[in-house]
Amino acid sequence: MPLLKFHLYKGRSPEEIGLLLDAAHEAMVLSFGVPTGDRYQVVSEYDEPHRVFRRPFGISCAAVAGSSSMV
After folding, report:
1. How far apart are CA 2 and CA 38, in angstroms?
2. Is 2 part of the annotated catalytic residue set?
3. Tell me, which fold does domain 3-64 have in CATH?
4. For the chain, what are the domain ranges?
């Protein structure tokens, strides 16, 4: 029984989150043969200012200089 964890920014509607979880479960069923009844998913929601991204290993600062999501 796989456990899927989703880390999302706050602000999505329950319907949007439901669609995401449904699509992820369907992909697990089709791709890995997970039984349809084995659905274990955890959603954590965060405020946007709490994000921290590190520069990818091996990429120079010049390669990511224009990206606002890299710190």
Report:
1. 8
2. yes
3. Macrophage Migration Inhibitory Factor (3.30.429)
4. 3-64
Q: Which of 24, 62, 63, 26 is CA-nearest to residue 43?
A: 24
CB 28 within 8 A of CB 5: no
| Secondary structure (3-state) at 34 | coil
Chain mean position to CA 28: 15
For 11-66, how does the pLDDT look when each residue is reduced to its tens digit (9 = 90+)? 999 999 999 999 999 999 999 999 999 999 999 998 877 666 666 666 555 544 44
3-class SS shares of the chain: helix, strand, coil, % to 5: 35, 20, 45
pLDDT of residue 70: 41
pTM reported for the whole predicted model? 0.67
